[in-house]
């Protein structure tokens, strides 16, 4: 609904809903979302979730919903997205991609990808681009393949959003990790870089 409204009414929808969505995302990030854990015992894998695990899932799903609403708004903006990625929104997304829970990191990279599809990075804002590049590099070397994949997609969009002459300075940080992801994906699902 927010995406369709944004297509019709444009930036006005973003301006009206941004503070509410970011406030909700911040409050969900402050809730206790348990870090990732491995299921080591075979008997534990078939066990139903207990109350604590359901609360953890609910906290993550609420955060995911807020972030996906934001992504739909950015998608609805299309070409008028330029200049709409403010520091607060970027800060929340970067907080998500460094979260201790893999599902939050995965969602953060997916929303970052959506934001970067239409966003043309400010070429004069080297600090912002470097910050995004460092967070993408971190995701490309994540322990979880789902996070690596979503980070790889965000990296692709990031590089495409930059003018070709500005991409070169990010290659030393990103290319080695992209190559490793391509190498390890040859055994399984092919990743599109």
Task: Map the helices and strands.
Elements: H1 2-9, H2 11-30, H3 42-45, H4 51-77, H5 87-97, H6 102-118, H7 126-140, H8 145-161, H9 164-167, H10 171-185
Helix pairs in contact: 1-2, 1-4, 2-4, 2-5, 4-6, 5-6, 6-8, 7-8, 7-10
Keywords:
72% helix, 193 residues, mainly alpha, 10 helices, disordered C terminus
Short description:
With 193 residues, this protein is mainly α. 72% of the residues lie in helices and 0% in strands.
Describe what you observe in this structure.
This protein has helices spanning 2-9, 11-30, 42-45, 51-77, 87-97, 102-118, 126-140, 145-161, 164-167, 171-185. With 193 residues, the chain is mostly helical.
Compute the average pLDDT.
Answer: 79
Helix content: over 70%
Sheet-strand content, in percent, reads under 5%
Q: Roughly how many Å apart are the termini? A: 31 Å
Run of helices and strands: HHHHHHHHHH
Radius of gyration using CA atoms only: 18 Å
Q: For the report, how would you describe the main beta sheet?
A: none
Please give the count of helices: 10
Low-confidence stretches: 39-43, 186-193
Number of strands: 0
| Structural class by secondary-structure content | mainly alpha
- Describe the global form: flat
